[in-house]
Amino acid sequence: MLILGIDTSCDDTSAAVVEDGGRIVSNIVSGQSDIHMKYGGIVPELASRRHIEMIVPVVEEALEKAGLPLTGLSAVAVCHGPGLIGSLLIGCSFAKALCYSAGIPLVAVNHLEGHILSPFLDARPPEFPFLSLIVSGGHTSLFVAEAAGRYREIGRTRDDAAGEAYDKVSKLLGLGYPGGPIIDRLAGDGDPASIDFPRAYLPGTLDFSFSGLKTAVLNFLRTQSGSAARGAAALPPATVSDVAASFQKAVVDVLVRKTEWAIKKMGIRSVAISGGVAANSELRRRMKEMAGDRGAEIFIPAVPLCTDNAAMIAAAGRHHLTEGDIAGPDLNPRAYLPL
Amino acid sequence: MKLTSDGAARTEEIGYELGKRLKAGDTVALFGDLGSGKTTLTRGIARAFGIARRDVTSASFTIIAEYPGDPPFFHIDLYRIENEEDLEGAGVWDCLGRNSVAVVEWAEKLGCGIKNCIRVEMTDAGDDRREISIEGLDEEDRNNL
Q: CA-based diameter of chain B, in Å?
């Protein structure tokens, strides 16, 4: 069973061919970070315009690399949300037209389901049930994945996503976009114990909160430079690295601790982590360490499969197809789409 | 009208009271820096339209969070928006006015499109305190807030 996946939920246009929900035949991701870098964020108009330019070449490359004609596909799986509405529209419209013209079935996949099932693209996938932590620029949620298509949310952020905190703090520090890799790199030169930023553990729940941390960084910068507007320009590089390291430590402390609580509370010892922040070196290291202490098994896909990609959409599309959950030409994307 | 909140819970209550006074077609324009409580206030406003507290989080990533209902409720966050083209491309104008209720964070980025809005300015007054100034509510509603 060969499925073409398409994802245009955010800044990357991606297309992939995946066999039987796990073997990647091709996976093409058009990095757009070069144009977004100067804006300090994902700018929707730019993103949608780029998606229009990229969608045909990216899909063609995915099929070519797979050595497949359109008619060789069992189905097309497209991400219909959550994400930026203008960007999602391009992927959905394209996929609908493609399926209509080639006479192949279309299935709709929630972006979050794609992330949850992304570990199945690795050589050693987890077994159900497992805990899934999705941590990215748009999401920070904990799920129990009971089976393909059966997910229970047990915690989520009440305000900002962890990756969003990274991007906002990066902007406050006058650094670039995306904030995750830049702060991760700078943190290596800083002292994580130098500034005691707050950690919102929210005892008794598996929810997250990163808004207070972002505000604490802003207030710290205000007291340091006398003005947030001047931001990091007024700070010595060593202080910037210390802020990066201390901020990163606060984020990772919370993510690791709450995942540890989830393991204990749910009695599930397999944990998958995905989303852009799962590419963070410190998070990967600390999660593996925690899992070792707890006797749990951790499944983190390779970095290109943590960040947005269409292979995970194609992988998740399989069970929709086998269950006959086919999308019609009336499929509409949604910016806000709870799983 | 100027109000002072002593923390997030009170800010949310003020939002709820404001939300109860809104009607279909209203747009609330929020002004204030990072961490001034805009999303917290929005959570309160949304609650007045039957939207669960849990379902309102930062909309910086998706720009527009739509909650179908009667009236439809839009939580819009323009943090990432840079110019007119972006506003157009994100579909922000389609969400304002008509039969829906919209709350717009970083409303200064709406440019000249912020006429006929209820304006709310939020300022960090140190620690958990926030100063909230509300303009544009009907006189009668204002006395009851």
A: 39
Q: Within an 8 Å CB–CB cutoff, is residue B126 touching chain A?
A: no
Residue type, A25: V
Q: Which residues contact B22 (CB under 8 A, 6 or more apart)?
A: B28, B45, B48, B101, B118
Q: What is the pLDDT of residues B109-138, one digit of tens each?
A: 998 767 679 999 999 998 899 999 999 987
Which CATH number covers residue B53? Answer: 3.40.50.300
Q: The domain that contains A242 carries what CATH number?
A: 3.30.420.40
Based on the domain organization, do A184 and A309 belong to the same domain? no
Interface test with B, best of A53, A211, A223 (most B CBs within 10 A): A211
Eight-class DSSP state of B108: G
Write the CA distances from B106 to A157, A265, A307, B75, integer angstroms: 21, 39, 28, 12
Sign of dihedral through CA atoms A319, A322, A325, A327? positive
Q: Is there a single domain that holds both residue A138 and residue A227?
A: yes
Residue B57, chain A, CB below 8 Å: the answer is: yes
In a domain, A338, yes or no: no
Rounded percentage of chain A residues whose pLDDT exceeds 90 = 82
Q: How far is CA B79 from CA A129, A151, B108, in A?
A: 38, 31, 10
Which chain A residues are closer than 8 Å to B58 by Cβ? 157, 159-161, 164, 211
pLDDT tens, residue by residue, A209-258: 999 999 999 999 988 876 555 555 678 899 999 999 999 999 999 999 99
Q: With contacts defined as CB-CB under 8 Å, which chain A residues touch B39?
A: 159, 211
Binned at pLDDT 50, 70 and 90, residue A53 comes out as confident
- Within 8 A of B64 by CB-CB distance, chain A residues are 85, 335-336
Q: pLDDT tier at A42 (50, 70, 90 boundaries)?
A: low
| Distance between CA atoms of residues A224 and A218, nearest Å | 10
Q: For residue B17, what are the CA distances in angstroms to A324, B4, B29, B49, B58?
A: 47, 14, 16, 11, 21
Contact A87, A48 (CB under 8 A): yes
pTM of the model: 0.91
